Structures are given as structure tokens and as C-alpha cells.
Amino acid sequence: MIATVRSATILGARGHPVSVEVHVAKGIPGFTMLGLPDESCREARDRVRAAIVTCGYTWPDKKITVNLAPPVYRKTGSGLDLAIAVGLLVAFEVIPFDAVRELAFCGELGLDGSIRRVPGVAPMVGVHADGDWVVPADAVNEARVVGRGVIRPVARLDRLVEALTGAASWPEHDDTSGVVWVEPELHDMADVRGQPHARLALEVAAAGGHHLLFVGPPGAGKTMLARRLPNLLPDLDPAVALETTMIHSASGAALPRAGLVTRPPFRSPHHTSSSGSLVGGGSHALRPGEISMAHGGVLFLDEMGQFHATVLDALREAVEEGRIMVGRVEHDRVPMPARFQLIGATNPCPCGGGGMPGACDCDERSRARYIGRLSGPLLDRFDLRVAVARPEVDELFGGEPGESTAQIAPRVATARRVALERSGSLNAALDDNGLNEFAPLTKGASELLRREVERGRLTARGLQRIRRVSRTLADLDGQPDAIDEMFAISALGMRARIGLSAVGRAA
Ligand SMILES: [Zn+2]
């Protein structure tokens, strides 16, 4: 008896179709799995057998072969458990084949017959998006984001068999209790005391999509500031929301109750995290790392120079390409989306004094080595480099609270809309041609920047960055035409020197 059941597996954040073929024949009793199952997928044999027996079905003394087709890619994890169990029960003549012909299945089986969520239900369902699926009850939200057919949430194998044999109707309940989604806190700009320069930089970063580097000593509030960027950003557009949902599903992270990730994520991994958890990969499934989890949102790297060189390389790749390649072996490498806004933070030097006479006791060499860890090509990607100082005591205890996120976000939304309508992209994506076309300078601004270049205070790349930032400043001010001197001066002020003369010149 041969039974075939539809399912899927994931590689990275992408699903691939799998056809589970079950063959049961007379012979020496045994259970063989073919078709490149990885270790955890191979363990399905024991889980499936236990679940079937616990639910009260007979396990025949026969030779059982399960083939996971096609054999060209590795099948990872436990997501095929349910399809294998259903295939076996068809082959055992417990479930009629006609009942499963039009269905696909995914989910892990517990030894007690429970059907559990696995990482990647959304990309798996996407493989047969028009088909009907049986999914773990606690993954129904993400399945429904992707699936256009009927999605059947089922929590137990015996309940599934009852439904498939017509002994009972399909379970109705939407149990989303598996991994609990925690609504992200609203980090409000009104909580930031003082720091007018850093506040403006955040607003500009949000409006223009510019990467932003904070340079300042510990305690200057760099993390507090960075956390406030996502709430200044608009909702994700539908295509990005779907990609982000796929990545978060593939990681096994909790998803919002409605399934779709609609708000820009914020990720702030520590530099001591393993490069696997930052870049992605792993020995079983190729799980998304923090760099991909930030897709559509904000990646904040505090003490950026302290991250491992392989992480900084992957970061540069992501910033340039909007994706990274994940996986160790060449033929196993898969692309993973990773387009995010980067906020880096660094001390100006090992001691935090930033080379200021009297405040810094680092020599030039150790300062150079410290900043040198951030490679030139990566530093080049930061349109905004802003010095932040520890707030003054007066600012902490008195003073007016600054504008709130609710006051700033509409300005950001308007500026983004203006940019998108004008050039089809945010200002951070403007290259030389785009700048000439969409960010012309007035005579005054042009002469001012020309003098900076002539005096060696601005490189060609630096000039590009200044022009992009001035475009955003002018947009925020409701001035969509040629950029005048005032905005150029303001942009020049958002270009901190980084505690090292050589880098300062290159900036
Ligand atoms: Zn120092």
C-alpha cells in the first residue's frame, strides 16, 4: 500500500514543497526514512509512532518506508511529523485516501498525540498558498496570513483522524496560546530630555531612511534614543510586512495575534552574541539571525566596533544588498532578506573621552585601532553621524519635555511620502544621478559645499551624504525645491568627527 501526502519544509525563510510517500509491505518489521531528512526530521520515526499508538491506533508489524520527495534538498526539523503520521494512517487504512487528497499538512507531533507549532508555518503554507491546509492550532494566525485556501487548525492527532474519517466535524477553535506575543512598548520621544541634536537626527533618519551612527560615551542615552526610531516610522507596506512575517515565522518567534507583522521590528543584539545568532544559520534548519529579524525595521548595534569581523562583513553585505547569504556549505547557502535601518553606536575611543585634551587618556594609536574596527565601507553607509554627550543634570531634572512621538511621526510620514512621490525611493537611496535630479542646490548652498571640498573638509562621498541629508531636512521643513544654504549647514553639523584625525578627514 502506498500513500502520498502533501507537506513542505523550509530553508532559510523560504518554503519548499515536500511529498511524503509511505510504503507499507510484508517483510521484516522496520521503519526507514529516505529523502535527506536531517537529524531532527529523522527523529519523526519515534515521535510519530508514539503519537499514533497513544491515540489508540494499531502499529502493524510490517516493513515501513517513508520517502520525502524530492530528494534534492535537506528536510529540516519536525514540521513533517504530521504529514508522515497522516500518510501512515492512510497506508494503515485508518484514514481513506480521498479524505487527504486535496489537503496539505504541517506540524510537529508530541508523544501524547498533540500537534504543535513549528518554526516556518507561514513560509510552508506559502508553498501551496491556494491549497487547503491542516496546521497546528497555535499557528493558525500565521497560516491564515499566507494561505488563500481553507486553513484547518487542529490541536490533536485523534481529533484530526475523527475529522478526516467523518466521525466528527472539524475543530473550530482558534487557539493561539503557543508562543505569547507581547505588544511592544511605546518608547516615546517625549521621554528624551535635552539632546536636541540627537532628537533631530532621529527625525531625519526616520524621514529619509538614513543609517545613523551615534558617537558618544557610555551613559549618553544612545540605546534610549535608538529605541525610539521604530515608533517614528510608518506601518510596513504590505509586501515588506509579508516578508517580515515569513522571517519571524521561520525563526519560531511569536507573531502578533492577527499573524501579520505590521510594525517595524526593533532588534538590538549584544556584541557577545554568537555570530550564528546574529547572521543566521545553524546546523539543522537555517534559522534567520538578528540581522534578518530586523528586516523592515531597525537594527541597533551598540559598541559596534566590538562585533566580530564576520558579523560586520555580513552587515555590510546586508546594507549593500538588502539580504545576506546564510549557511555554511556552498550548496546549502540561501539568501535571507535583511533590509533595515541601521543605528550604530560607538564610543569615540576606548576611554570615551574622544581625544579631547584633558578628557581622554588614549594615545592616537589606540584610538585609530578602536575606530578602525569599523571598516571604511561600513562607515561610509552612515549618512548621519551624530555626537551625543551625557545629558546635563539640569536637563535630567528640569526643562520642558521635548515633542512627543505622536507630534513628530506625522511630519516624518509627510516627508517620506514627498520623497517617494518625487523619486520613487527614500532620500537615503539617492545616488549621484538621483541627487542631481531630485536634490538640486541653490547657488549659495553649492558655493558653501564647494568651499568645504576645496579645503579638504569634505570628500566626494561625504558630499553625497551631506546632499542626501539636506534633501531630507528640506523635505521635513516643507521645502521640496532646491536646497538652500541653511539646510546644507545643518547637514554639515550632523557629521561628527570620530575621535581620529584620519577618519575625520575621510568623513
Ligand atoms: Zn580616549
Please specify the SSE layout and strand pairing.
Elements: E1 2-11, E2 14-25, E3 30-34, H1 39-42, H2 44-54, E4 63-69, H3 81-91, H4 97-100, E5 103-105, E6 108-109, E7 115-116, H5 121-127, E8 132-136, H6 140-146, E9 151-154, H7 157-165, H8 196-208, E10 212-215, H9 222-226, H10 238-251, E11 266-267, H11 275-279, E12 280-281, E13 287-288, H12 290-293, E14 298-301, H13 309-321, E15 323-326, E16 334-337, E17 341-346, H14 364-372, H15 376-379, E18 384-387, H16 393-397, H17 405-423, H18 432-438, H19 443-454, H20 460-476, H21 485-492, H22 501-506
Parallel strand pairs: 3-4, 5-8, 8-9, 10-17, 10-18, 11-14, 14-17
Antiparallel strand pairs: 1-2, 2-4, 6-7, 12-13, 15-16
Helix pairs in contact: 2-3, 5-6, 8-17, 19-21, 20-21
Zinc ion (ZN) binds at residues 349-351, 353, 360, 362.
By DSSP, the count of extended strands is 18
Intertermini distance: 71 Å
Helicity level, as a percent range? 25-40%
Task: Identify low-pLDDT runs.
Answer: 499-507
Average residue pLDDT: 89
Shape: elongated
Structural class: alpha/beta
- What is the topology, as strand order, of the major beta sheet? 11-14-17-10-18
Beta strand %: 15-25%
Radius of gyration: 28 Å
What characterizes the major β-sheet? 5 strands, parallel
What hetero molecules are bound to the protein chains?
Answer: zinc ion
Tally the helices: 22
